[in-house]
Amino acid sequence: MISFEEADTEETVTCLHMTFYHPCQNDQMFSCLNFCRREQVRADEVAKFGRDSNVCHYNLMDTRVSRIQFSLQFYRKLNSSECCFEIKNMSKKTKLMVDQTELGYLNKIDLPWKCIILFGDYQILAETEEGVSMDYFETYFHLSEVPILQERCLPSRQPVPETGISSPLFPSQGKNPTEIDENEPWHTGDGGWSRF
């Protein structure tokens, strides 16, 4: 009998969690997706999402969805043990948004470890749970009752100060900014700000 210390280390598996939302979702639309159940996919397979059940692993029963909407390729980064996903837009009719990046037909990018995928009225929150197995990965689907864009607070590109004005309050006009005490009074002088 093999002792606990001598047993082989169990490989962790990369799992892609995907939470789906559509404003008109019904029982039929997502009927081919197995929610709340992990499914194994071989590492050398390309996972395709779309309407055509003959080609796609994951079917969306909606005539507005392309035969193949998008695909996910699992891969290992060069000179690294890190595994990740590449997403490719396979639709000629519909652009695919991955966070702020717009993908046209056959455009592809690395899937961020946490992002929102948009096409048509579909919203998908994708989150990658890292693992080390290179033989296969897992998918784990969830269904959201509320819009994902509403649930997830997306950070703005530029911080906005308490005043609500996003433009610089003190234009530098070629000078380096000076640190000041916020409690000291200021007034406008000849076209600039100066202390009393």
UniProtKB/TrEMBL annotation:
Q: Where is this region: Disordered?
A: 162-196
Keyword entries, A-Z: Cytoplasm, Immunity, Innate immunity
Compositionally biased, Polar residues: which spans? 164-176
Record-linked Pfam families: FHA
Query: What is the predominant subcellular site recorded for this chain?
Result: cytoplasm
Domain of life according to the entry: Eukaryota
A GO cellular component entry from the record: cytoplasm
Where located? Answer: Cytoplasm
Biological processes annotated in GO: innate immune response; positive regulation of canonical NF-kappaB signal transduction
Return the SUPFAM superfamilies for the record: SMAD/FHA domain
Q: Which family does it belong to?
A: Belongs to the TIFA family.
**Protein name per Swiss-Prot or TrEMBL:** TRAF-interacting protein with FHA domain-containing protein A
Could you tell me which species this protein originates from?
Columba livia
The protein's gene is named TIFA
